[in-house]
Structure formats: C-alpha cells, structure tokens
Amino acid sequence: MHTSVVPDCKHCRRTSGRESRMQKISVLLFLAWVCFLFYAGIALFTSGFLLTRLELTNQSSCQEPPGPGSLPWGSQGKPGACWMPSRFSRVVLVLIDALRFDFAQPQCSHVPGEPPVSVPFLGKLGSLKRILEVQPHHARLYQSQVDPPTTTMQRLKALTTGSLPTFIDAGSNFASHAIVEDNLIKQLTSAGKRVVFMGDDTWKDLFPGAFSQAFFFSSFNVRDLHTVDNGILEHLYPTMDSGAWDVLIAHFLGVDHCGHKHGPHHPEMAKKLSQMDQVIQGLIERLENDTLLVVAGDHGMTMNGDHGGDSELEVSAALFLYSPTVLFPSVPPEEPEVIPQISLVPTLALLLGLPIPFGNIGEVMAELFSGGSGGGSSRGDGDASHPDSPALAQVSALYINAQQVSRFLHTYSAATQDLHVKELRRLQELFSKASARYQHLLQHPREAEAALSSLTADFQQFLRGARAVCIESWARFSLVRMAGGAALLAAACLLCLLASQLAVAPGFLFRPLLLIPVAWGLTWTLLYAGVSVTTGSKLDPVVLGAVAAAGSLLPFLWKAWLSWGSKRPLAPLLPVPRPVLALLLIRLATFFSDSFVVAEARATPFLLGSLILFLVAQLHWEGQLLPPKLLTTSRLGSSAPTAPPRHSGTHALLLGIGLLLFTRLAGLFHRCPEETPACRSSPWLSPLASMVGGRAKNLWYGACVGALVALLAAVRLWLRRYGNLKSPEPPVLFVRWGLPLMVLGTAAYWALASGAEEVPPRLRALVAGASAVLPRAVMGLAASGLMLLLWRPVTVLVKAGAATSRTRTILTPFSGPPTSQADLDYVVPQIYRHMQEEFQGRLERTRAQGPITVAAYQLGSVYSAAMVTALILLAFPLLLLHVERVSLVFLLLFLQSFLLLHLLAAGTPVATPGPFTVMWQAVSAWVLLATQTFYSTGHQPVFSAIHWHAAFVGFPDGHGSSTWLPALLVGANTFASHLLFAVGCPLLLLWPFLCERQGPKKRQSLPGSESEARVRPEEEQEEPLMEMRLRDAPHHFNAALLQLGLKYLFVLGAQILACALAASILRRHLMVWKVFAPKFIFEAIGFIVSSVGLLLGIALVMRVDGAVSSWFKKLVLAQQR
Amino acid sequence: MEKVAGGINASSWAGLPLSVRLFSSTIGYPLIVTQEDTMKDTDIKRLLYTNLLCIFSVFLSIFIPSFFLDNFSILETHLVWLGTCSAFVTGANLLLYLVVKPNVSSKRSSLSHKVARVVRCWLYFLASCFFLHIIFVLYGAPLMELVLETFLFAVVLSTFTTVPCLCLLGPNLKAWLRVFSRNGVTSVWENSLQITTVSSFIGAWLGAFPIPLDWERPWQVWPISCTLGATFGYVAGLVISPLWIYWNRKQLTYKNN
C-alpha cells in the first residue's frame, strides 16, 4: 500500500513542481487582468459621468467692450474707467474661511421672553451689528448662496472667475493649480493695480506671481488655529498704513480650522470670532473714503465643522460690504437678502472700473450702482444731469453684465456643444430684445421709469436664465461612455461568474486562461491606436483602455460560453443558496435609493445580521447541528453518512448571537450623514484631545490602550493555540517582541496627542518632536515586520540544533533516510501524508511522539498564521491613522471576523481531495463586514466626512509641497477596512481547514456521541491535516484561490455596477451630486483598494506556499547529509 | 421545499419521545397509509377552516376595539392594537387547540401535570418574547427609547410564531427543532406551522425596509412597519399554507409509522 500511495504522489509531484508555480503566476495575472477590466469600465464610466467644464482662456480687456451699442457715459479711455466708471479706487477684501451666515448675523435682543442664547458662535461679530445700526446707508449684510462643492479652492476659483467649478475639481483641493481662466486678480494686475495678499497659501498656487506683495502661510495643518491669523495680523495694519496697495486681500483660516478641530459649538470658536471682530473693527477705523471693505466667508460649515457638500449650513456664507461713503440709497431690509456668491465678481469688477472676467456668469448687485453718494469718484458726463441717473446706472451695469454673459455664452457654445440649444436661443432672443429697448431708451430718455424697471427685470431674467443653463449643462453627461462603462462592468461581472465556476471544474487548464485575452486585447488596442493615428484624432487613454478591455473580454467570454455549453442551464452560475442571492440583490437594490445610501450605515449591519442568522438557521435546517446539550438524550433528524462533521447547536447559536452583539456594538460608533438632522453622531469618534473632562479623558485613554493590548493578546493567544508562536522564525519573534513595542509606541503617541494642549511650554519642542517620531517609528516597525514576514513566512518550529533534531521531529515517520534520489523526490509529500498512512497502519508507530503533532499543527496553520500576522501588522499603522477610540472598533473588527470565520467554517464541508470551494455566503458576509467597518470607523461616502487629520499623523507640521504622502495617509485612513478585509480574504478559504481540528475534539467531549464514534471510527483516529490538505492538491488549491478572488471581485464588481447604474439612471435626481456621485466615487476607489488588497493577500498565500515548498526541500537536503 | 418528500426515517421516528408520537397520532392524520390520500384531503380542509378562523381573528382585532374605544386606529393607537391583536390571535389559537384537536396529555396526566404544562407554556412564551426583544435590539432597534413598543412587537411576533408552536407541539423544544429542519415535518399541521412561522418572520424582516425611506409616512416609524409586516406575513402564511399543501399533496408524504 505504501508503494501504491507514493506512485500516485510521484505523478502529481513531478508534474506540479514547476507547473504549480506557473499556475500561481497565471492565477495572479488572470486576477490582475480581471481587475484591469473593472478599472477600464470604471474609468470609461467616470469619464462620461463626471464631466469637467471646458475652461476658456479668453480674457476680457479694457479696450474691447463686451458688445456693440452705446453706453450712457459715452466713450472709454478715461483713467480708471473701463466698461464703467470706477466708484472705488481701493478695496480691502477680508476672506474669513468658513464664515457661515449665522456667525455674522446680528442677534436681535428685542425678543423679551427668550433666554439669551449661549451658543459660542452667535452674535460674536458685534462690530457688524453696530455699523449696520449706526450707518445703515454705508453697510449691508448679505447671505451669500454658495455653489457646491464647498471646498476652499473651488470657492476661491468661483470668487475670482465668477464661474462654477465642477464636481471633478473637488478632489484636488490640496493640489491646486493655477487658474487659467480670466479672473479678477488677472484683471487687477493688468490694470496696474497693486494687489497685496496675506493668508492662506492656496492663493499662491492659484495665482502664481500675481501679487505685488504677498505673505503666504500654510493652510494644510487644520489643527493649527493661530499661525495663519497671527501672521496676517502681523502684516495687516502696517501694510494698510503704508498705503502701498490698491487691493488688499486677507484670507483668515482660524475659523475654518477651529471648525475642523473643535466644531462650531466649542468655546474656542467664540474666541476666534471675537478676534475676527476686532480685526474688522480695526479695519473700519483705518478705512478712507475711496475704499470699499468686503468681508466674506467662502463657505459655511456643518454642525460638525466640516464642509465640502451642499447642505444648507455649508452653502450659506456671510457677505458684508462697507464704505465710509454712502453706498446704498435705501436702508437695509429686515431680513438680509440672499444672493449668489459669484455676484461679488462682476460687482467688484465694475465698482473698481475693471472689465468683468470673461467667463463670469454672476449677476451684478445692481443697488450698489445707484450712485446715491455725493462723493463717488467719477461720474459719466452724460447722465450727471439726468433725472433718472441712479436707475439708469443700475440698468447700465446690468446691461454690461448681460452683454458680457451673452458674449461668454456665445463663445462657449461655439467651442463645445454642451449648452442646451433651445434654451440658449430663447435667452439670446430675450437679450437682444432687451438691449434694443435699452438703446432706444438711451436715445429717448424721457420715456423713463416704468421702462427702466421692466428692463431691469428683463436683464435679471436673462442673467439668471444664463446661469441656470450653465449649471444644467455642466452637469451634462456623455451617455455613450456611461453606457459603455456600465456594459464593460456588467460583462466583467459575468466573466467573474463564469470563470469562478470553470475554475473548480475538473480538467481546468490555467495557461490558456491568460494567453487568449491578452493576445486579443493587444490586437484590438493596436488596431484602435493605428486607426486613430491614421485618422489623426487624439488618443484618449480611457478609450484605449476600454477598447483593450472589451477586445480581450469578448473573445474570452465567447470561449467560456462555448466551453460552458449552450445546453447547460445558467442557473448554477448564480450565487447559491437562493436566500443569499436575494440578500445580494436587496443590497444592490439599495444603491438605487438615496435614502438607503444615506442610511447604509444602519442597513449594512441589518443585512449582515440577517445573513448571520440565516447561516445559523441553514445549519440547523440542513441538520448539521447537534441539538443543544440538554436535549441530547435522544437525537432526532436524519444523519446521513456523508454529512460533514456536526457542530453543537448552542455553539453555532452563540457564535451567531455573539456576532450580532459585536456588530451592534460596532454600530454604536457611527457618524451621522448630513441628510438626517435627527440623528446624533457618536461622540466617540472625536479625538480625545477635544474632550474637556480630565477624568473621562483618562478613562477613555485607558480603554483605548486596553483595546490595543487586547488585540495584541488575542493574536498572540491565537498563534499560541495553533503552536505557531513557538517557532523561532523572525516573523514570530517580531510578533513576540515587535508588536508590544508598536503597542507601546501607539499608546505613547496617543498620550501626547490627547494631552498636547496641557504641556508646559518648555516641553513643547520635545512633545512636538516625539509626536512626529513615534508614529513614524510604529509605521517603520510594521513595515519591517511585513518585510520579515515576506522573507521568512514559514512559522514552523524546527528545533534549533540542527539536522539530527530535525530528523527526529519530522522525518522519523518515514522509516529511515531515503535510499535513492527517486525516494528523495517523494519524501516531501510523505511528510504530510504520514498522518493518513498512520491510521492506515502502514507505519508502526505510537501516537506518543509529541513533537510530530506539534510540528504538524504548525504546518496545519502555516498559511493562516502568516495571514493573521500580516493582518495585525497592517492593522496597527491603519489604527494609528484613526482617532484613539476607533481602536475599540478595530478590536471588534478582529473579533467579528474571527467569529464569522468560525461560523462559516461550521457550514463548509472539507472536501478532502478537492476541489475546494469558497461559498457565496462567505464572500457576501465578508464584503458586508468590510462595508460595516467602513462606517463604524467613522467614515461616510461624502467628501466632507473625509478624515483630513490623518495626514498629520507623524507629520504634525504638514508635508511641505508633496501631495502624494498626505493623499496616501488620508486614503489609508478612509479605506482601511476595505484594505484589511481584502487582504484577509484568503482566510475564508483557509479557515474551514483550520477548524478541522476542533471537530473531533468536540465530539469526544460530548457525552452522547459514542454512536458517532462507531459510525466513523477512522475519522476519530485521524490526525488533522488542516491546511496541509490544500498543499496536498496544489492544482485544486490554486483553482480555489482563483475562485475566491473571482467571487470577491464579483460581489465588489456588482456593487460598483449597481452604483454606476444608479448614478446614470438617476442622473437628473435631486440628490445625484450629494449622494449618488460621491457614493460612486467612494465605491470606485474602494474597489480599487480592495482589488489591490485581494491580489496582495492571494500573493501572500502563494508566497507562503512557495516558502513551505523550499522549507521541505531544505529539510530533505539536511536529511541527505 | 420539495425535499420534504424524503420524510424522516423509521429509526429516528422511534427516537421521538412518546408524547410527540401520541400527540401526532391524535391530531387526526392517518395511521393507515392506504387511506392517506383521503385523510390528507380532509386534513387539508380542516386546516383551511382553522386558518380562516385565525385570519378572522386578526380582522376582528382591527374592528372590535373601535366599538369600545373612541379614536381607535391601527396607526395612532398602535400599542392598543398590538395588545388586542396579540390577545385575539392567542385566543383563536387556544380555541382551535381546545375544540379542533383533542387534548394531548389527557390520558396520562393529572391536574398538577396540566398546571405544570400551562406554566411551562407561559414560561416559554415569555422567554420567546424576551429573546425576540434582544434579537430586535441586536438588529438595530433602539436600546433605551421605545422599549415598550419594541417589547410589544416581540409579543406580537411571539404570538404569531411561538403560540401556534406551543399549541401544536407543546413546550417541547426538541419537537420545535425537528419541525424546523429539513424533512422534519410529520403532518399537514406541522407543515402549515412551518410555513406560517417562517412567513411571519420574513414579513417582520421585510417590514424593516421602509423605515429609512424618506416618504414621511406615519407607518414608517419603528416598530409599526415591522408589526404590520409580521401581520401580513402571518396572514399570508395562513392563506398560502393550505393552498401550497393542496398543490403539493402528491409529493408530500409524511412517513410517520
């Protein structure tokens, strides 16, 4: 019998030595190719969905009026008068970042019944209120309506160009680039005005070299409330007094940073706003008669102090105008007027006597042009004596504005076709009629009043219509590309389904898997490139990728279809069992409802819980559970002889309930979306530094460190249980000594970070240094640990001391040293065959030889030990990027996945010779768990919820000019759960083998299981081979890894497909930019992160496999000596 | 579901406790296999009538209270309706248990045994209420707020699921586990019980889905949609089960002797 076993294996080994490696490589490459298909689909869809606006580089110029027709003030060319005579020669623009409207709103104290409101941000700008009361004709407060996205760079672009920044720009907030469009600053410099800037250094990137004098301060460190503001204050008044300026811009960041760090309800906000109040007061005192003061917020902030989206609080900003001369003919209205923010652009341009920037679509604030003051600098000659001059001046300003917008629309629609033609024609007619009437009016000034007011209304209607057309068209989609992208995604999903079934089919060949698609893809790509070069059109990389993907995908699908056979039904392709399929479909359907996308943080745990209870119920239904102990006197139900090992019912139920409990606990850490005002975010997601109570802070700190230690202890316990902790290999040594060091470093860093405000001044430098060094040290340790793991991934105990002991521990089963070279080749499989041979009685050996069992146990968990070590090494740096209390979530995450794996393993039969399969419910539960963790680590799929503070972990002073490192840190923070779960994905395949050990043990301990022992006596005696079963059948192992990867990619890909379809079908939905588009973007990036993580995880398993092979080889060589 | 045809084999039937065998032989399904078809038809007919009575009790719980209470409506005085619905359905089940099916343990039990049995039934019912409450909280129901609402939902769902189990199978967890496993069903009644219980749970589960939607309807509030879902599920189960059993009567063979 010995000889009969070995030849079998001889055969398989001989073929699989090199073959196996080839298979591994082709599995990895195939998965990478499938990922590429998805990427191509995502890119194609994105290019059609997230359109950028065409940026025109035309400039308005002084000499060239925006249109034909005469103006009341006759010819141009006077000093300081371009399209319109200037009213002010100097402007002070104070931008207070995130100055929400209600921050500036004067608080009415005349309501007697109400108690005084004690919100920190209300009523702190007292100087505005005073001025508005004392000099109502000199000042005005507006609520300016901001266009989303409400990120600072987009707002600055809008505030200077008067245009609408499009959605796609939102991502590049911290990598801003110079503005190419015509803008106010450009106009100012070309008019020879001296522009002095101080504050946020975003302006440096937007307007390089435009300022005559500039004081830039870094905007990136959002934890620093004072550096920028104090820097400005140092230069503001001296500059102002020196008089060497025409336009002075000061961009304060303190309020915004205070919002990010503490939220608007913190006492710090009151201090910051009072400081701003003093600044405004100081400026007002220094203003001269020819100067206009503009105080503006670029956007608002949410209740949490974030911004970026389009909630009511984010899009309302304050705008305050003041001049020592009379500005307004009338007193301010009771309730401040609501105006679009970009109205400021044409208004400022015309007030300063500049041309309006070419691409402006804002509407001029007409009442500022009534010219009510006596002290305005210059007036047109013709209308000075005119009785209607204020009204006429207003209409004229609107006329010029309308001319400019009309010119822009004309130019823009000539350059692209995306403006709505019919609407455009209607607007054009409206404009030409109104301008004809205006010209008529100029020639016949007596017809007056009524005509003037109707003209005002017409121009305003035109301007608003034009703005609406632009807003609508800059959200216009390329339907062809969207459909193509969605089709590509769908085809890739189908491919995943087909290939995952084919992979485990008998006689599956790996090599042709890759050659055909690559060949076809290359052919098509070359063909496309050739055609586009010959026709001279531009080569679009997105289209090129899509052509390559489609070209390689279609032949493969065709071939797979043929090999699948047209006769066979398609039903087996779909995820089984049906309830899991239904659950997946429900999950996909939720992407089409904005309410469900918003409520996904609650819906995902619900679905996960349903899946868990379904798994338990299914185990019971299938009769795979033993009844609870108290009922074991007589067993019921069928006991089929082929049934997999049965588990205790209470055990499974407890696993399920425990999972539900942990899921619920993790759900306590949740951050509310802006759309649900009734919801209250968990206070535990804020950093400890923002806590006020000292004792509570210390308790929480203790809990966080406790979570870290528990995490460490859990992993060590796990490794010890499977014996891997005894191995002297470097990764294990690292787990024993390096991990505690990492815990220590993390704890120390948290202590510094949470108590940084209370540090005595002389220790400041030390603390700052340490808070930079500690995180880097932890990350460095983690990286070196991963390197060690990659270098020596086999964590098996081999007694130090050399060959003799090795022989004793491992090779004694094999009846002495091998006698020939041929024998040597076969000794490797024998090492893990020996257990089977043992119970077959081929070798006479007692079971008392302890070391062998130990070694076998280690070998049995060698893959998962490496995986778990890698995961914990990955988890620590990711944990460091989050706020302290998320460590509890990470602990829960590990516990949850541990329980889930156990529960799944209970339902997975271990097919000994293969083929191995990974069940759909396993993959679905894993994806759901990843999504749930994404939410419970405090994330939301909206831009305002991104944890920017992660960029400062280890870099408390910012990053200088580099952008990829902060982007990496923030990305790692955001997609931590995607990464962890994707890397840990192979555990789904490995765990059932790992749990094999527990089955017999459990049964032995049960009182009433003698009968079972009689039924399967062999299995009782069999030593668990565990993961070595996988190694036994390398072909099946590789196929199972491929199937696992494909199934995981399918579930993720189906999600991204659903998101894409939702975004395209609901592209006119009210919530598309608020909910669906961000969800799609987050899901797409999450997919990319997950797919990379998946490839890494599978590659790690393959690396361990290779290392185990070479380890066996070494063992044999040692034996030979 | 087609796999029910397999039936449980004789040896495991022998493993059943005596009470279950007695119980199942007394509730009126055939002991002689040759008569099985006709007996099954009459059984199905009786099942249909009993189920109609249960449905009727649910409707009664909607209409009766409005005679006694002024502004009674399901949505506004939801808790009252939950209570009455639970009471009516329990009453209907008990009635059926007493009238349609003869008392199981009459032959061998004394009064104390009966009392003990009733007490155990009560305990089981309460335990199932608390268990369901815990499950709801784990599924995301609020822990501190709306405790009464959540608990009454648990009571109603227990009424739809646990009470029929108690009536048909008695306080016997083993039998329950048997009925809810593959091939575990031994009679038309148990089959119907299986279907109604599962459909009640599914209805309650589906009832949770409208909660996040922004339709601003009064019935979207926790736990109203879930209780309504459970009720619909229960009623649907009652309607479907006789039909389904009738439809599949050729395939269904309850091998029980």
TrEMBL record, chain A:
Q: Which domain of life is it from?
A: Eukaryota
Membrane keyword on record = yes
Q: Where is this region: Disordered?
A: 999-1023
Pfam families in the record, alphabetically? Answer: Phosphodiest (PF01663)
Gene3D superfamilies hit by this protein: Alkaline Phosphatase, subunit A
Record keywords:
Endoplasmic reticulum, Glycoprotein, GPI-anchor biosynthesis, Membrane, Transferase, Transmembrane, Transmembrane helix
Pathway(s) served: Glycolipid biosynthesis; glycosylphosphatidylinositol-anchor biosynthesis
Where's it found, cell-wise? Answer: Endoplasmic reticulum membrane
**Cross-referenced InterPro entries, in alphabetical order?**
Alkaline_phosphatase_core_sf, Phosphodiest/P_Trfase, PIG-O_N, PIGO/GPI13
Q: Taking the first listed entry, what is the main subcellular location of this protein, grouped into a coarse class?
A: endoplasmic reticulum
Looking at the UniProt entry, the stretches that span the membrane are 25-51, 483-503, 509-530, 542-561, 581-599, 606-621, 651-670, 699-719, 734-753, 765-791, 862-881, 888-911, 975-994, 1048-1068, 1080-1104
SUPFAM superfamilies according to UniProt: Alkaline phosphatase-like
Query: How does this chain sit within the bilayer?
Result: Multi-pass membrane protein
| Protein family | Belongs to the PIGG/PIGN/PIGO family. PIGO subfamily.
Protein's name according to its UniProt entry: Phosphatidylinositol glycan anchor biosynthesis, class O
Q: Which gene encodes it?
A: Pigo
From TrEMBL, chain B:
Q: Does the keyword GTP-binding apply?
A: no
Q: Which UniProt keywords apply?
A: Endoplasmic reticulum, GPI-anchor biosynthesis, Membrane, Transmembrane, Transmembrane helix
Localization annotation: Endoplasmic reticulum membrane
Q: In which pathway does it act?
A: Glycolipid biosynthesis; glycosylphosphatidylinositol-anchor biosynthesis
Q: Which GO terms describe its biological process?
A: GPI anchor biosynthetic process
**InterPro entries noted in UniProt:** GPI_biosynthesis_protein_Pig-F
Note the topology in the membrane: Multi-pass membrane protein
Q: Per the UniProt record, which residue ranges are transmembrane?
A: 47-68, 80-100, 121-139, 151-171, 192-213, 219-247
Presence of keyword Endoplasmic reticulum: yes
Q: Which GO terms describe its cellular component?
A: endoplasmic reticulum membrane
Q: What name has this protein been given in UniProt?
A: Phosphatidylinositol glycan anchor biosynthesis, class F
Name the species this protein comes from.
Rattus norvegicus (Rat)
